[in-house]
Amino acid sequence: MAKKIVSDELWSIVEPLLPPPTPRPRGGRPPISNRAALTGILFVLRSGIPWEMLPQEMGCGSGVTCWRRLRDWHEAGVWERLHRTLLEHLHHAEQLDWERACMDSASIQAKKGAQPSAPTRQTEEDPVQSAIF
């Protein structure tokens, strides 16, 4: 049997962080479960396939449905909360090695208007003034 993309342990961590489903006043087709959507999202992100090529046989709904759920969860701040929660779990399990941590301007916001720590050196010669005849 194939390994689950979303294990029961991972799902128990993720599920409380997800926003409750919105009611559908007009009825229609019931939405796919959050777990199925997460499975589809992780499959696309891990495999690198286009959203439209998500196999229907996986039971995750369409790629567009998974993409919309990804977008909605991003707007709701789910991914940031999940990142923090997973880091906390790893920290408590003593599975984080902070000696190997790395931060750069992509992960830490620079202060606006801060003075540079050193003056910028000129890398080329002074431009020659045009000779006017």
TrEMBL record:
Residues 6-83 form the Insertion element IS402-like domain. InterPro entries: IS402-like_dom, Transposase_6_like. It comes from the Bacteria. Residues 109-133 are annotated as: Disordered. NCBIfam families: transpos_IS5_3. This is IS5 family transposase. It comes from Vreelandella glaciei.
